[in-house]
Design brief:
The chain is α+β, with helices and mostly antiparallel strands and about 350 residues long. The chain folds into two domains: about 10-255, 3-Layer(aba) Sandwich (Aminopeptidase); about 260-330, OB fold (Dihydrolipoamide Acetyltransferase, E2P), CATH 2.40.50.100. Helices cover about 20% and strands about 30% of the residues. The chain is built from six helices and 18 strands. The protein has a five-stranded mixed β-barrel. A four-stranded antiparallel beta sheet has the order 15-14-12-17, with no helix packed on it. A hairpin with a 7-residue loop joins strand 1 (about 10) and strand 2. Helix 1 crosses helix 6 (about 220-235) and helix 4 crosses helix 6 (about 220-235). The radius of gyration is 21 Å and the shape is globular. About 45% of the residues are buried.
């Protein structure tokens, strides 16, 4: 017998109109014996049409998405909608409240815990609710991310799963072009993240990567908001004055190869990048130096690229330990979406 998810919603997802409330995750602690974790949620529903789930704050130190989703909750009205939009601005609320990537309650990384566990830790319970309750009723999802505290992505980017066949390729291509951020990165499924959770539930999910470094860029906020509104209009949910005249950009389709496109530190020290965001690099090219101020006679260690491509992301923090990601690349993608 399966365990029911303990999260209870203040709002009725089947009811028409605009509702704003909380998902209540029971959490009994010393300061609050019968307490619950408040995960903000909104539903805007009118007539018949697709259901679109928009989330942010899966990682609590990624801020642009939280601002965008909160703004959309204020802006979107039932008269603009045909179907339903469900919005969560602080999906992993404990992490978002603390401004940390993972939850301070269980060190849970929400985007590495799908399909979750209804009898597990708080972050596992949230993952299970998103997949089994919210994604189960949605056709589309966008989960808004940025580089967080430790990483910086160049500009406004989309990320999604490689299509499985020609029919899905056409559909995914149209959605990415409607979203219209400057670059789109496609990658192979990771069964524990939300894009794979969406695929299991029959929905299409895209992520964004918007800047980072623990900061907020108003330009990236505007680009991603405009892209989301255009995407909502493209799938037939949104109409009216909020619909942009066009997509923000024509995206360049690229591909991330997990085995060769990530550069990691293999020594603890201070890292010095030898390339900048947007640079084109080749396999075997020097990527960074690791310095050792605690051992000043020691020469720095050079880190090399294992693959070729464009630098799309770099570490924001100078201190590095073994296993920290320093740089990320993406390569050109061949095929119909190019």
């Amino acid at each position: 017998m399966s365990t029911a998810n303990p999260i209870k919603s203040d709002i009725d997802f089947d009811a028409p109109g605009k509702q704003v409330g909380y998902l209540r995750l029971p959490h009994s602690v010393n300061r609050s014996a019968y307490g619950w974790i408040p995960i903000p949620v909104a539903s805007i529903r009118n007539g018949t049409g697709p259901t679109f789930l928009i989330t942010a704050g899966s990682h609590g130190d990624e801020y642009e998405g939280q601002i965008i989703v909160a703004r959309l909750i204020r802006e979107l009205q039932p008269s603009m909608i045909q179907g339903q939009v469900i919005l969560l601005p602080m999906t992993n609320f404990p992490a978002a409240e603390a401004g940390t990537r993972t939850s301070p309650l269980d060190d849970g990384n929400l985007n590495r815990l799908y399909p979750g566990n209804p009898a597990g830790t708080p972050t596992q319970v949230i993952a299970h609710y998103i997949e089994s309750v919210l994604l189960a009723r949605a056709e589309y999802m966008v989960d808004l991310h940025s580089g967080g505290t430790s990483l910086i992505y160049e500009g406004a980017n989309m990320m999604g799963l490689e299509p499985r066949d020609a029919e899905e390729e056409v559909r995914v291509s149209g959605l990415l072009r409607a979203f219209g951020l400057p670059k789109a990165f496609l990658y192979q499924p990771n069964p524990v993240n939300v894009t794979a959770a969406a695929r299991r539930q029959g929905a299409i999910c895209f992520l964004t990567e918007l800047g980072g470094g623990g900061q907020v860029s108003s330009g990236l906020v505007d680009l991603a908001r405009q892209g989301l509104l255009n995407l909502l209009a493209h799938v037939g949910i949104l109409s009216g004055e909020l619909v942009p005249a066009s997509a923000p950009a024509v995206p360049r389709m690229m591909r991330i190869e997990k085995g060769v496109h990530y550069v990691y530190g293999l020594n603890a020290g201070l890292w010095e990048p030898l390339v900048e965001l947007g640079d084109q690099v080749e396999a075997g090219q020097p990527a960074a130096l690791i310095h050792f101020p605690d051992d000043p006679l020691r020469e720095p260690v050079t880190v090399y690229f294992a693959g070729s491509g464009e630098v799309i992301c770099k570490r924001a923090l100078a201190q590095v330990r073994v296993g920290d990601c320093l740089l990320e690349l993406a390569g050109a993608r061949s095929g119909n979406m190019g």
